[in-house]
């Protein structure tokens, strides 16, 4: 239950507002002067403040309210404050709104408008506090990583925390690393972290996306080619392995490498030796290889599409990145990174966390770019992101063959899975959005 502080020296106003808010499910704390108000905010968890502009019977300037406003902001800069004003104090109230006050209401007030404003501001306050908590978490997280270069990676989830910690450990060694995960999940960024914190950070870091190259050019791209080695090869070409000599080569979409290229890659990893296409001269390099794929290489091995010996040569250590839908704690921080200084409605946060993000971080970035262009100012709502699948408007429900979970079953599952929405949703065979609707229906905290 959210706790609201009402500050007014008039007992009748305190009583009227307290009754209105308590009827609508809020807990109420009252204060009749600035000192009491500051004590409450300092020692209690207050979600919103309703404060008068004067606390002395012979004062109408609003200066007392102005002083209290700034003191409360010092105590909690994210605390929403609504000012209760008379016409004589309106100019001061507008000044304070410009300084960060959430809203102001005149006397007498409209009950419904006040309740709507309070509900919206309480949710906004939660979002701002959550963002501040994230920033504190980031500072605490990066403290033990003093000196580490995270190449701008934005994350808040425990899953990504483990991945980053492992990447920093692997950076100290020279073993081959295989990074797996769906497209757009951040595999290249993890490779960059390994490189940036390794002993090779000042050496060449060469990237090649095997999935973006025609099959007949992949070998030439990796190992180079002599003039005339293939149609269109009018001059000698240096391959990526030669360019990366002494440093690191990042091979993205390694599963797309043809079998002939896999054999040559295996040889380079074993001996450091290779020949350019069209050449018999053996060349030798010293290159650390980090590879990545979104494919199931073990399945490809069974199907004869990928060499087992190469797989184990590449996969000394595997870092498996989960899809964005399994690390929902990263979504709001990423949006704050892609859309700095923009505010999200609470409904938007919940909807974006519930969306499946099949394109992962890349899709999220594109959605943020669209929202920023189409709505350059103001609070962003879920519909501003124009997602491919309108899961925010309609969620898949449990089919009629499955029994609808009771409130007790939902609470037990939330407890058993420690509140992890994705796991609870899988437990009941429903989408996360469908689960959110049921949690709201039964007023279950999540």
UniProtKB/TrEMBL annotation:
Could you tell me the superkingdom of the organism this chain comes from?
Answer: Bacteria
The GO molecular function terms of this record are: ATP binding; sequence-specific DNA binding
Question: Which positions bear 4-aspartylphosphate?
Answer: 52
Q: What biological-process GO terms show up in the record?
A: phosphorelay signal transduction system; regulation of DNA-templated transcription
Residue span(s) of domain Response regulatory: 3-122
By its UniProt entry, which CDD domains does this protein fall under?
AAA, REC
The segment(s) forming the Sigma-54 factor interaction domain are 153-373
Q: Which UniProt keywords apply?
A: ATP-binding, DNA-binding, Nucleotide-binding, Phosphoprotein, Transcription, Transcription regulation
InterPro entries (UniProt xref): AAA+_ATPase, AAA_lid_NorR, CheY-like_superfamily, Homeodomain-like_sf, HTH_Fis, P-loop_NTPase, Sig_transdc_resp-reg_receiver, Sigma_54_int
- Tell me the protein's name: Sigma-54-dependent Fis family transcriptional regulator
